[in-house]
Design goal:
The complex is a heterodimer of chains A (589) and B (99).
Chain A (H helix, E strand, L loop, with lengths): L10 H23 L2 H30 L4 E3 L4 E3 L1 H22 L20 H8 L7 H14 L6 H19 L6 H33 L4 H9 L10 H19 L7 H8 L2 H29 L2 H26 L5 H20 L4 H27 E6 L15 E4 L9 H4 L1 H15 L5 H15 L3 H26 L7 H4 L6 H6 L12 H15 L3 E6 L5 H18 L2 H9 L6
Antiparallel strand pairs in A: 1-2, 3-4, 3-5
Helix pairs in contact in A: 1-2, 1-5, 2-3, 2-5, 3-5, 3-11, 3-14, 3-22, 5-6, 5-11, 6-7, 6-11, 7-8, 7-9, 7-10, 8-11, 9-11, 10-11, 10-13, 11-13, 11-14, 12-13, 12-18, 13-14, 13-17, 13-18, 14-16, 14-17, 14-22, 14-23, 16-18, 16-22, 17-18, 17-22
Chain B lengths: L3 H20 L3 H26 L3 H32 L12
Helix pairs in contact in B: 1-2, 2-3
Classes of the chains: A mainly alpha (589), B mainly alpha (99).
Chain lengths: 589, 99
Amino acid sequence: MNDFVAPVIDWAAVSPVLIVLGAGVLGVLLEAFLPDRVRRTTQLVLALGALAGSLVAVGLLWDRVQDGSVAVVNGSYVLTPFGLGVQAVVALCALLGVLVVAERTTTGQDAFAPAAAAVPGTVYEDETRRAGLQQTEIFPLLLFATGGMLLFPATDDLIVMFVALEVLSLPLYVLCATARRRRLLSQEAAFKYFVLGAFASALFIFGVALVYGFSGSVRLENVVAVLAEPSVSPLGTMPGLVVVGLLLVMAGLLFKVGAAPFHTWTPDVYQGAPTPITGFMAACTKAAAVGALVRVVFTLAAGLDADARHDVEVALWVVAILTMLIGTVAGAVQTDIKRLLAYSSIAHAGFLLVGTVGLDEVSSRALVFYLLAYGLATVGAFAVVTLVRERTVTRGPGEGAADDDDGVVLGEATRLAQWAGIGRRAPWLTAAFCLFLLSMAGIPLTAGFIAKFGVFSAAVEAGAWPLALLGVLASAVSVFFYVRIIVLMVLTPPADDASAAGSSSGSSSGGTAAPDDGLDGAGAEPSGVTATLTGTATRTVVVRTVVTVVGSRGPAAVAIALCAAGVLLLGVFPAAVLDLAAQAGQFRF
Amino acid sequence: MEITNYLGLAVILFALGAATVLLRRNAIIVFMGVELMLNATNLAFVTFARMHGDLTGQVLAFFVMVVAAAEVVVGLAIIIMIFRARRSASVDDVNLLQS
């Protein structure tokens, strides 16, 4: 047999991933050794530093890959302009996402449970809350997930891709379960995400097995070589294997993208997960998964014969149409802001898929830009959602108007009706949110317009004009539901308090429990809530809840401002970023 | 014995696992279905490795095992968390008690 040959590793090329994963490992160690006081600050600085470092590393590598891709570790990690472009989007959105995660608002509480393992509603949980514990493991988990996302679009080796898929998914499952409020919902979201995610990754790996059976390799370029010259592999004469394998791999990836018919987890998970995590997950996972999808499908499709290529294109068409349809139609009837944004992200997955049908470089450059525009708007929009809260009001209707210091700030006010008239209380926040929504709708002078124009024209160029037409139509429908929210926030007077104010202490429990109705889902016990409330009503007279906008302590405000500035700049002066995206268009050499 | 029989077995096991995930309601059983799918994949990998006469497939099976183990850790934690929460008299929005 051969002597062992140590691999030559180009560390610089792997640095964007290594920095983030290394910081994640360091974060776990710090978690064990640092005293309570400094832990949060250290973790936060480490996470932000690592992500910024990763972004810088991507920038430094940018010029190097323009002349040709860099294969590292014997080709397991292939750095291409496209891979780097997606990595830049992921790192940037993760950076903004971490800022939102770090937000504690003026209430001094972050969005995460003091002890996620505590059973909701127990004395133990109460004590952790009172002791002011905090779960700083959030930051290492975020870093691990981001590391997986950075690796995901930068490999041509299907098994590395599988490992990256798990590295990004497993921390996300855990993160979903850590919400401070509405914990049963949060846990349920984690559970659904886990079961469906594990199922999807099992499909993915079985697809990889079939591709391996066909070609004797899990490297995409080797598979393409076998497709060109079937006689080199014992099973090379069975193209059915690779087509079924490719479809299964695509199913696994489309699950992560959140495309129909693998989208069913999206609304539930986006709604149940802690909102900062939802923003992070929506932006970064989608970017990474689209990157990986492009790598696999574009590369393999280049090697397939006309018939098989046609099959793949038909599959993409069907999925794209279904996804746009479900995203826009179901999105139009949602009454919960997080669910609505989830359906909007499904619709965006559809638009992204419209951009993929060309299977060439025009498509991939449009996709990079789209991912950036979508990511900024999404992180920003979910950041705004974290600041719009419910607050209890302890005074009755006749005892004077509620002032802002009154009562206890509760969870997010996610019912759409509660957002009525927000514009008067928080004009800047509302303006930013409107901007994000307009960008998602694709209104000119926002990033979303340029992005949508890019993907649709890429589709037209590939001859898929019916698909582009459908995309434009779906886009027009979606404008309707985005504008509906804007009208609600800016023009509709607040439902104020008048509707809820009718309930005095007698019907207090009904009034207060209502905001969480229907959100509690399985396992929540409305009767339990009622009983407790009636108990406390004698002491504090909890009358009703009103909607309030809590102030940011900095990080979230910075994130929102940056996202808003980005969305505007990309919309008004897109040239520079479009040039970068054009450079990032090359997905293979 | 014909080596393709192993592939047939792998496909059957995979289909059984998928059916378990889609049809059963108990979280643990569903989880076992996922594990069955992953192990069916391992069988396919090893069989293909034998057909191709190289070791790659066997190494890949190890990767899948490690990932499956990691998935068990996270998955069981989530399932147990759900189980504990649902059996106890849980209140969703405990914030109301904080004041």
